[in-house]
Design goal:
Stationary-phase Survival Protein Sure Homolog, Chain: A; 274 residues; 24% helix; alpha/beta; nine-stranded mixed beta sheet; two-stranded antiparallel sheet
Length: 274
């Protein structure tokens, strides 16, 4: 099954969230650039830094079942008619926004970010930016996550994000999103005029090491790429290392289908006595 394609982006309703907090530079850039091509943009984001919170729910789990309006929810602070600071994780923010702020009409699209720093490889399992996007697709709203890689030795700049958000949105909204899939976009840490294109990628795999070899992707943590299988698509961090924009579809189906036949063979003769 697929989400309904967004045929008219100008009149689409868009919800923006993040994990860096409502005052973060990245979410301001995302709202600013999105508002240039869409007239119905809303922001519901954490009231403070909530990075690496994954898809956790905290505040929303404490809500009374009979709670029916945003006014009853103490965690939601209304800044103006379209900006809301929420005491909760990114997942909480999306859940509460969809439940209490959009009772008449749900958003046509959820945008998460722009995150300060990459969301590549195993980063996606920690990421609150990805967590917000996942909450969107679980609740029936197609979602795109945006992250800006900030290399440790690079000049920290949002230039690539600011320049390419709009053209990417105009293209990606033509995609018929499968109902269990979000799109993860990572911008390289270089000026916009140094970006060498857009490339589809897969989730890479890297491992922590105390003494990593010289690695072409500038990182704050000691990671090194360690690919375990060949693919027609490069790892996401390989794309970023080439100063290209990485675009990766991510499914919430975490099943390892390759392991099912082997596990079935191991378990077929098991004898469990009660």
């Amino acid at each position: 099954m697929f989400f309904k394609q967004i045929s008219d982006l100008k009149n689409a309703r868009i919800l923006i969230c993040n994990d860096d907090g409502i005052d973060a530079e990245g979410i301001k850039i995302l709202e600013e650039e999105t508002s240039k091509i869409c007239g119905d943009v809303w922001v519901a984001a954490p009231d403070r830094q909530k990075s690496s919170s994954g898809h956790a729910h905290v505040s929303s789990m404490l809500l009374p079942r009979n709670c029916t309006s945003a006014e009853e929810v103490g965690q939601i602070k209304k800044i103006d008619d379209r900006h809301f600071a929420i005491d909760g994780t990114p997942g909480d923010c999306v859940y509460m926004a969809l439940r209490f702020l959009f009772r008449d009409k749900h958003p046509d699209l959820l945008l998460s970010g722009v995150n300060f720093g990459r969301n590549l490889a195993e980063d996606v399992t920690y990421s609150g930016t990805i967590g917000a996007a996942m909450e969107g697709i679980i609740r029936g709203v197609p979602a795109i996550a945006f992250s800006q890689h900030m290399g440790i030795n690079a000049v920290q700049s949002w230039d690539a994000s600011r320049h390419f958000i709009r053209p990417l949105l105009e293209r990606l909204t033509k995609f018929s999103f499968p109902m269990n899939t979000l799109v993860n976009v990572n911008f390289p840490d270089c000026p916009a005029d140094k970006v060498r294109g857009v490339k589809l990628s897969r989730i890479g795999e890297w491992r922590f090491t105390e003494n990593p070899p010289e690695y072409k992707l500038r990182c704050r943590r000691n990671y090194t790429g360690q690919e375990t299988e060949k693919s027609d698509y490069p790892a996401d961090y390989e794309v970023i290392a080439e100063n290209k924009i990485s675009v990766t579809p991510i499914s919430i189906d975490l099943t390892d289908y390759a392991s099912l036949p082997r596990l079935a063979d191991i378990l077929k003769d098991i004898n469990i006595k009660v």
